[in-house]
Amino acid sequence: MDSQQEILDRLAEGVREMDEELAVQASYEALENKIDALTAINQGLVVGMNEAGFLYEQEEYFVPELLLCSDAMYAGLDVLSPHIQRNTAESKQKVVIGVVEGDTHDIGKNLVKLMLEVADFEIYDLGRDVPAVDFISKVKEVGADIVCLSTLMSTTMDRMADVIELLKKEGLREQVLVMIGGGPISQAFANRIGADAYSENAIGAVKDAKRLLSEKRVAI
Amino acid sequence: MYTAKDRLIKALKGEIVDRPPCICPGGMMNMVTTDVMQQVGSMWPEAHRNPREMARLALGVHNLTGIENLGVPFCMTVEAEAMGAKIVLGSLENEPRVIEYPLLKLEDWPRLSEIRLEGGRSAVLAEAVGILTTQNPDMPVIVNLTGPVSLASSLIEPMSFFKAMGKQPEIVHEILSFITDNLIVFGRSLLNAGAQIINIADPSGTGEILGPHRFREFALPYINLILADLEGSYQASMVHICGRLSSIFAEINQLKTKAISIDSTTSITKLKAALDNKIIVGNVSTLLLQNGQPDRVKAVALNCLQKGVAVLSPACGISTATPLANLQAMVSAVHDFDYLNREVLCFD
């Protein structure tokens, strides 16, 4: 019988190596060996996904690899999730995310969503081609901590400013952090429209989200 | 004295000209602004489906800003629509976009229809090219093609398509071959309508997204197939590549075009050092074009020229909110630059 650590390593390996079968098989092994499902997820699958994220940052992995890793992770999650002992008292930080109106390119948004999920944020995904007003109503509805805006097209960048303006108008700007990203976006653009952060990629977005929230806590 | 057409064609081929031209190609690299639309009296979204309006708008950009080319279309959805994607034409400010993919599963690709040239916006585009070339014999007309990976990801959900590159590469190659054949047919129809220059932009198939290995496998060969197959039908070609290029310098050298257009994340100096036998088109920041002051725009454009772009252009599609004064300032840079003191671009 394998030790717990060996099984956790296989879970991570299945995700990192884009090996869906291994991730699923190791998930069943974890259950058979009475490893707590949440432990198997956080110390197995999530570790693998973070390793994949690191390889992405190192430019050893690119978008196709990251997507295949996420498939392996979700395949493992499908096995393990039903066995999680729910802790209802725990409240996660809430993120509303979407591609701004006029643009339907959502790969980048999906990667950010994925890595934020892995980092234990609660995600409300509005999809793509999302009107500014929809971001605002979702932020209100769920009491979001962060709103993430994405676009690939230089012609739709201004829709990000629209969302920020509308947040201000609704008196919500102080409550919610705004993070932006996408092909044509830059730090200069973020500064100009008054976003709290520009994230270059999905891994950066997780770091920025954590940093902004801890800064905000200190400020309060 | 060069005509704008001669100058751009020669510059894109790497030949020495009196001065670099300043262009906005069109297609992914949008050049239409709301100011132009209003002054010309030809508006989005109508102009996307009416050849005369489309031609007037393209010509209006030249007349009002001094930009030295005519270019169509103003979006990346013509090919996708002609192959079965459902699109919406957008608004005065927003470009047309794909809202429904015709393919749900990759395996179903043989059901994809061949590109429709008659009727629809393919015909609109060809007719607009015809109007532009007939009425403006001295102006270069650029037709913009959506690159194969980007077109594929307008026909199939992009996440499944990218994943298939790892899991089912054979099917991905089959789809890309089919799409490339159709792009060749489409491109030829536009060149036959009179356009002289072809620009291919593949924003979903970049080195930054795919990585060098998959760029080499899935993007480069198909772009080269289009360029090779249409060779002889165009007088000059260019390829626009978005994002950081540092990981694919070797692959860019293998593109079968002389002219490489780049966005503002890539340094002209580094790229020049890494490429042999290519000329660079670029790369005035579109953010600056939208929000900067004209003198600053001009300074940045002059800097691009100083660093050695052979053709000056915005780094990407410009925002429809870009002021005319800034586009005029960019163009003024090619007229005022001191060419005698610039390093020589290309000897061959």
Short note summarizing the structure:
The complex is a heterodimer of chains A (220) and B (348). With 220 residues, chain A is of the alpha/beta class. Chain A is built from nine helices and five strands.
Task: Describe what you observe in this structure.
The complex is a heterodimer of chains A (220) and B (348). Chain A has 220 residues and is an alpha/beta fold. Chain A folds into 2 domains: 4-83, Methionine synthase domain (Methyltransferase, Methionine Synthase (B12-binding Domains), Chain A, domain 1); 94-219, Cobalamin-binding domain (Rossmann fold, 3-Layer(aba) Sandwich). Helices cover 57% and strands 10% of the residues of chain A. Chain A has helices at 4-16, 20-32, 37-57, 63-80, 107-118, 132-142, 158-169, 187-193, 202-219; strands at 94-99, 122-125, 146-150, 177-181, 197-198. A 5-stranded parallel sheet of chain A has the order 2-1-3-4-5, sandwiched between helices. Chain A is built from 9 helices and 5 strands. Chain A starts with a helix and ends with a helix. Chain B has one domain (4-333): TIM Barrel (Alpha-Beta Barrel), CATH 3.20.20. In chain B, helix 7 crosses helix 8 (169-192) and helix 13 packs parallel to helix 14 (324-336). Chain B is an alpha/beta fold. Helix content of chain B is 47%, strand content 12%. Chain B is built from 14 helices and 9 strands. In chain B, the strands form 2 sheets. Chain B has a 7-stranded parallel sheet with strand order 1-4-5-6-7-8-9, sandwiched between helices. In chain B, strands 2-3 form a two-stranded antiparallel sheet.
